[in-house]
Amino acid sequence: MTDTASRAAPRRNGPGVNISSAGGMAIDIRNLTVRFDVANRPPVLAVDNVSLSIRAGEFVSLVGPSGCGKTTILNLCTGLLPVAYQGRVDILGKPPTAGNPDIAYMLARDSLLPWRTALGNAAYGLEIRNVPQAEREAHARELLVRVGLGAFCDAYPKALSHGMRQRCALARTFCLGSPVFLMDEPFGALDAQTKLQLEDVLMDLWSAEQRTVLFVTHDLAEAVALSDRVVVMSARPGRIVADVPIDLPRPRSVRALQKDEAFHHLYAKLWTLLEEGSEH
Amino acid sequence: MSTGNSGGNPLLNLAANASRGGGFSLSGASATRLGAHAMFVLTILIVWEISAQRGLLDPTFFGRPSGIRDFLWKGFVTEGKLWRELGYTLGGAAISFVLGSVSAVAFGLLFTTYPALHRAAEPYLTLLNAMPRIALAPLFLLWFGLGIGSKIAVGVSLTFFIVLSATVAGIRGVASDHLILSKALGASPSQLFFKVTLPSAVPVIFSGLRLGLIFALLGVVGAELIAAEHGLGQTLAYLQSTFNMDGVMALLFLLALLGLGVTAIMNRIERALLAWQ
């Protein structure tokens, strides 16, 4: 994986980002255990002793059956989950905090603000981070062009299709320039064809300016097509049952991969692992 | 046109003109629909006028279209007295609306920022809101006199609660996704409020404002009906007590038009302001 290592050089990182402080790891999770309190019942063990390290510039997918705690892990990394946990979570050497500028967060729901145009939405993250208007709009416009929405800068979200809205959300995410991306099934609400298109858009953006990506999905094909590594979790309580390197050559075309034999082989292998993890 | 004339004929002529499309170019579905409505209203007016002439409908109780027309002509053109009354009513409604809605939005913000305060105040607000506000008019008259003060008080008491509940509902209705995303981006509390909560609440607040304006007008006219020195409501009460049914009908028509006009203006503002919806 020499090419992965070469990607690890810091890119558009914010000031003060020191990757080496986490031993070269962009995301470092050590012995993470999370319990949820349930009223009148013993606490539910959601995540059981999970350790996961992601190098800078690496694209890692977290797959597993529904309720396995993959979203919990992601939300912990954003610092938005007000839950006590045992173990350590470090993002670029720092514990998770809400509003950490090192992190860009993307959800299945596009969460576009309906009163803002596509341009206003793409620039929203930078606006929150107090980037001057001319600068953030120029950057947002450039990204909208790259996701194929160049002609829709002034359109309101109501005029955009699902796929276009999610393209806009991708532009907003990449516009941030954060070195670490946390994505929670960003294409989960799209139809199969639109999903493939958006995955290719993501691959294009990511190959051009590589970020560290932790990508949560329950779609194995998506995980294999996009990732450097696929981490498989078991049903609740969530444990890591496999960590599979995806050695498909890059740059990848997700649509071309659909007919690739190695892709299907990996898919079948992961499917078996996932099924084993679900039965117990 | 004096009442002795065959008042139906000019109306009939007008109707005939309209049906031939005389003078108008009735193209498109909306123009056709407008023509159909005009025909319908004209027919009613003609039937009303003829019934009044023939003694089928007593003008002492129902007035008559020609009399209503004469009353409005006199009030707005030859004597012009109605303009002043209209001014008092509209002025009172405008002041009530501004005072009521500004204070309601302010309280709405206060209550959503401090939910404990809202919980404490809620039973009293509910009680006040449950009271038929027009019943307070005699009290307000005593406190604020026959001038503009008492009608503004009634108008404000109606507008305030409507806009308050809309403001609270609008601010509470903010999509949690938008808040989560903004918090993840590192939005400060004031950024959250001005960039997410407030814009998302605007449509709901606006529908509250639209209702509030109608109710401000209603409160003012209601207070004038009970007692006032000026205003359309006061004029209406006077005309009713002197059995001037043409005048009463004319004023009712005028008040309905006012309500329509107010709604149309608010709709236009809303469309301009909320183009994204």
Plain-language structure description:
The complex is a heterodimer of chains A (280) and B (277). Chain A has 280 residues and is α/β, with parallel strands linked by helices. Chain A has helices spanning 2-7, 70-78, 118-122, 124-128, 133-146, 162-175, 192-208, 220-226, 254-257, 261-278, and strands at 25-36, 44-55, 59-63, 85-91, 103-107, 180-184, 212-216, 229-233, 240-245. Chain A folds into 2 domains: 2-102 and 178-278, 3-Layer(aba) Sandwich (Rossmann fold); 114-172, no CATH class. Chain A has 10 helices and 9 strands. In chain A, the strands form 2 sheets. Chain A has a 6-stranded mixed beta sheet, with helices on both faces. In chain A, strands 2-1-4 form a 3-stranded antiparallel beta sheet, with helices on one face. In chain A, a hairpin with a 7-residue loop joins strand 1 (25-36) and strand 2. In chain A, helix 5 packs across helix 6, helix 6 runs parallel beside helix 7 and helix 8 packs across helix 10. Chain A is globular and about 50 Å long. Residues 1-22 of chain A have low confidence and may be disordered. Chain B has 277 residues and is mainly alpha-helical. Helix content of chain B is 81%, strand content 0%. Chain B is built from 12 helices and no strands. The model of chain B is unreliable at 1-24 (pLDDT under 50). Classes of the chains: A alpha/beta (280), B mainly alpha (277). Chains A and B meet through strand 5 and helix 4 of A and helix 9 and helix 10 of B.
Give the CATH class of the largest domain in chain B.
Answer: Mainly Alpha
For the sheet with most strands of chain A, the description reads:
6 strands, mixed
CATH superfamily of the largest domain in chain A: P-loop containing nucleotide triphosphate hydrolases
Structural class designation of chain A: alpha/beta
| CATH secondary-structure class of the largest domain in chain A | Alpha Beta
Low-pLDDT regions of chain B: 1-24
Number of helices of chain A: 10
- Strands of the widest sheet of chain A, in order across it, are 5-6-7-3-8-9
Assigned CATH superfamily of the largest domain in chain B: MetI-like
Helical/strand content category of chain B = mainly alpha
